[in-house]
Write a structure and sequence with these properties.
Elements (H helix, E strand, L loop, with lengths): L2 E7 L3 H12 L6 E8 L5 H11 L4 E6 L3 H12 L4 E4 L5 E2 L3 H11 L5 E9 L5 E2 L36 E4 H7 L10 H12 L3 E12 L11 H21 L3 H26 L4 H14 L14 H11 L3 H19 L1
Parallel strand pairs: 1-2, 1-4, 2-3, 6-9
Antiparallel strand pairs: 4-8, 5-9, 6-7, 6-8
Helix pairs in contact: 6-7, 7-8, 7-9, 8-9, 8-10
Length: 340
């Protein structure tokens, strides 16, 4: 069996059928679909059982108490029998023909350890949203269609760290003891950066095969500034400790640091600032980056950011939070005036 498609399910009742149909109605048979009902309080568990009844040769259901996204994904890995693991979140979909495209690419490139592909954002009305996924992307620096290792293409660490934008050999997970952190948000950062280091062969292809649903209430859009800050700091502690234990930190530190700068400052600090987060919270993110590398402003990979983003990073580094907040307010007013 080529693919184990794992769908963690929690509070996605109104989206789940569309997700499962996008997988099961592709006419692709060399796969299994593992539905992990993560203690969802709505009718998700019933829907999972319904689809397992409709597709008994393809779909299996795991019912468990709520363990979060990481725990649900780990449960799916534990049940998987396919050669490759592919995660699809229960409120997202995959493009028509995606599974066949993945299978063809794996065959064409002699079954690499990891195949990376594109994704796009989709609104609840089905409209594709023209927005890049992530801020520091490796797309323009990594050639598509070439079989590479991380040591040959270190910029892969700067790509969008979604577990859903890749299929990975099950033996890479099992052979290296890789699991998703449980009880943390941003678990993809920790796991994907480990998988990249453990994959001896990685191939990137162009097509946007994965469709992310933009909706209020999803994990990626949920609030809770204090938890977001706490978890992103812990996730990068996990990453740096793991690379250190493997003897890889010296080789990859500059890229891991700029990845941390992006996730902690460009994303989380800016979000907290826009939400009116306290100075102490913003300062804790700057301190966390400084703990990883006190000279991070001299990192050559910061040049990958555009000029405006570099300005934000430097203002945050200087704790000029009020100045940056004022810039955001003026920018918002200008955009509002231009729309009139």
């Amino acid at each position: 069996m080529l693919l184990s498609v794992i769908v963690p399910v929690y509070k996605v009742e109104i989206y789940l059928r569309k997700c499962l149909d996008s997988v099961l109605q592709q006419g692709f048979s060399d796969m299994e679909l593992i539905l992990v009902d993560d203690g969802s309080p709505d009718r998700c568990g019933e829907i999972c059982d319904e689809y397992a009844g409709l597709y008994p040769s393809a779909a299996v259901v795991v019912h468990q108490g709520n363990q979060g996204l990481g725990g649900a994904r780990n449960a799916g890995i534990g049940r998987a029998r396919g050669r490759y693991i592919f995660f699809v979140d229960g409120d997202d979909t995959i493009a028509e023909g995606a599974l066949g495209t993945i299978a063809d690419a794996l065959r064409e490139h002699d079954y690499p350890d990891m195949l990376v592909f594109g994704g796009c954002l989709v609104g609840q009305d089905g409209r594709v949203i023209p927005e890049r996924l992530g801020g520091v992307l490796a797309d323009s620096f990594i050639p598509c269609g070439e079989r590479l290792s991380l040591s040959q293409a270190k910029e892969l660490l700067l790509g969008f760290p979604s577990a859903c934008l890749r299929v990975v050999k099950r033996e890479v997970y099992a052979g290296n003891g890789i699991q998703f952190p449980e009880g943390l948000w941003f678990e993809d950062n920790a796991t994907v950066l480990q998988l990249l280091a453990c994959s001896g062969s990685i191939v990137c292809i162009d097509p946007p095969l994965y469709h992310y649903l933009q909706r209020e209430g999803s994990i990626t859009k949920s609030g809770g500034a204090e938890r977001r800050v706490r978890d992103i700091v812990e996730v990068f502690e996990i990453i740096f400790n793991w690379y250190g234990r493997r003897g890889l930190l010296d080789e990859y530190r500059p890229l891991l640091v700029v990845k941390a700068v992006h996730e902690m400052l460009v994303v989380q600090a800016v979000m907290a600032l826009l939400a009116g987060g306290p100075r102490e919270l913003l300062g804790s993110l700057v301190e966390a980056v400084e703990k990883l590398d006190k000279d991070y402003l001299s990192n050559p990979y910061l040049a990958r950011f555009d000029r405006k983003t570099r300005m934000k990073i430097r203002l945050l580094a200087k704790r000029r939070f009020r100045t940056l907040a004022a810039i955001f307010r003026v920018t918002a007013l200008i955009k509002k005036a231009r729309k009139r």
